[in-house]
Amino acid sequence: MSCIHHATGAAALALIMLARISGAEAAAGDYRFELAGNPEAAGAGKSIVAVRLTRTTDGKPVPGAVVIQTRADMGPDGMKEMTVPIKSLPPKDPGIYRFEIEPGMAGGWMLTLAAKVQGETETVKGAVTVKLAK
Ligand SMILES: [Cu+2]
User: Fold this and answer.
1) Ligand 1 center from residue 111 Cα (angstroms)
2) Which side of the chain, N or C, has fewer Cβ within a 10 Å radius?
3) How far apart are CA 128 and CA 38, in angstroms?
């Protein structure tokens, strides 16, 4: 009675194992952070910046990553030593990570991010540049 059941189960298991194997081959360099739309004004000199994390091998968004390190500096405007804190906000859409920044100075900012991605042993790192209003 359960022959088909077992066969289906085995096939599903084989697929899962294949997925695991190909997942293990992905490296930390196979991910990319990019700006997701324009920054939103969040009142009192604050901006919300949305960043999309994608896997470059298949172009898919990567949900469930844990951002472990953030830095915002004015490197794009030649002020790399000028930094402000970043607050991580709860994600709204899968693969989109949101950050609140109070830049204090309008201009080009660089957000440098490090994240732990599910199934990836290495820390995934990346950066985006964004123009922020004061
Ligand atoms: Cu500055």
Assistant:
1) 14
2) N
3) 12
